[in-house]
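Objective 1b: paired records.
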Amino acid sequence: PIDTVDIGSDRRSLYDVLMRNIKNGKLEDVYVDSYFTEKRKYSDLTATLQKVDTTDLGYEQLNAGEELSPEYVNRRDLDAADIVEYRIKGIWYFDKRMGELKYRLLGIAPVAPDVNFIDDESMAPEDALVELFWVWYPSARQILHDAKVFNARNSAMPITFDMLLNARRFNAVIYKEDNVHGDREIRDYIADNALFQLLESKRIKETIRDREQDMWAY
């Protein structure tokens, strides 16, 4: 859902939950990229989330020495409707005590078209996508645990965003893995072939799944 006015608190979008807690200061571990080395505050995200443009009539007012009228200023804010996808970062590890392969979610990032080119029809939509910010997931777990998600299978029993993400109740495609080539994405070494990119993603997934099986193969 993208509406926040006529909708209950148990049906808010993930983007709305993240932004609301970044604004009020409850969510502080917000970073520039997926390496979590450079922090960002809400004031630092303004250039990423908002576009302010002055029209030609506004420049004429300024050139004439007059005060700029608000109607000559165009503002474009990114909201939940502009989010195209989410990118998550996690680590697969083998639990020796349980004897099974497990997954730990480390970060999540909303992805939307660049606010400066969002209304530019000359650019392909997939080329304008940018990661708005990365959230360190362990520090956001309590916030996401308190935020409810509409349960389509049982409307009387809402689930939490933390449960939904950790249970992996979503469709996803692997787009890159840690590697010696600067953590390049799949599309960087398999270009202009969506089918081969999906096959490479599947190959990476099968490699991870085979690792658990190989632990017990003698």
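Objective 1b, second protein:
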Amino acid sequence: MRLYDTLSGGVREFAPLRPGHVSIYLCGATVQGLPHIGHVRSGVAFDVLRRWLTAKGYDVAFIRNVTDIDDKILNKAADAGRPWWEWAATYERAFSAAYDALGVLPPSAEPRATGHITQMVELIERLIERGHAYTGAGDVYFDVATLPDYGKLSGHRIDDVHQGEGVAMGKRDQRDFTLWKGAKPGEPSWPTPWGRGRPGWHTECVAMAHEYLGAQFDIHAGGMDLVFPHHENEIAQAEAAGDGFARFWLHNGWVTMGGEKMSKSLGNVLAIPAVLQRVRAAELRYYLGSAHYRSMLEFSETALADAAKAYTGIEDFLHRVRTRVGAVVPGEWTPKFGAALDDDLSVPMALAEVHAARAEGNRALDAGDHETALTHAMSIRAMMGILGADPLDERWESRDETSAALAAVDVLVQAEVRRRGEARARRDWAEADAIRDRLKEAGIEVTDTADGPQWSLSDGTDK
């Protein structure tokens, strides 16, 4: 298996530190508001990675943190007149619900920043003792100049670093970043050797990754917007403290609208509950996971609708096989599918295998070759299961009476389509046209394609 490592700037062969065991840390949500589709893309992308590693036989430890103390959380809670902890807890539940709705597996552990203050204080003490951090005006800062290779993840030159923290009285150098913030009136705080205060953003993940995965682990993942300053500053702290930290750095691309990153400040947010009023959860998961994880995903209603239609095509094939042939259990993925995921998690290539199997399966089913159709259906279940979107998985089989009705209609329509095909074969054009007209009157269009006759309802639902 080969993965693109941001730190080395290229694709590298992946082998875990411990044979048979893979350790992954994913930067999770800052729970300041409702999750939108840009927030959860990393959850979907790296859920596929986790499922693939598990399918390959690895025991996977997957840690995804929750940032529940942050300037944005405090400011929004204050503006709303609500306690900060209630605000954070409310939106933590919203994120958990969004992940669950999209079939993202629960992490092995989901630590909160506020639950690991002790570990952060111990880390900061180590950095001060080793000469990489200092106190000033009640705060604690990391001394960037003490690391000659600072900037190696992002490519930033140390002379051009801007942490985005603004001017601070206690900083010796404005390129330095905050490890611990001194207490301010009305803000939550915890006791430390340097006085009461609260953690800086970049410290929590280093402390929690070490706590749950050890001084060195296999993969650190997150959105590409975290490369600088967050992940750059994580590496700086970990290495300054003497830890090996992450061996691979994986970053997913943004969801964009009009070429811009989706964010609340741009006013182009699509909250998960709102999107789920337009498409089903499985269709939204399919859409968010369909592009290569490192690419930008440009959102449009057309693209979302196309993804939903593609997913429905897979789903309907499986329903047709189950109706005509019998139970469809997961089988084996194809070699090309496995090769695609082993090639830096190339989901687009993997999905091409799924759709090729669907086309072959439909042809076999129409030809009465039930054994071949069933084999393809079983393979599709295996592949879509690894992608977290198997339509026959019990969590997604909520297509209600519509699915059953369409399956029953499909049996009747296919009988008419076969009769039409037989009439065409014997050049009985009048009979063939009569059958087509009867179906049209019933709101069913039949189209002759390279994959054989396909029918659709008047709303364009292809079968």
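The chain has a mean pLDDT of 91. The two ends are 36 Å apart (CA to CA).
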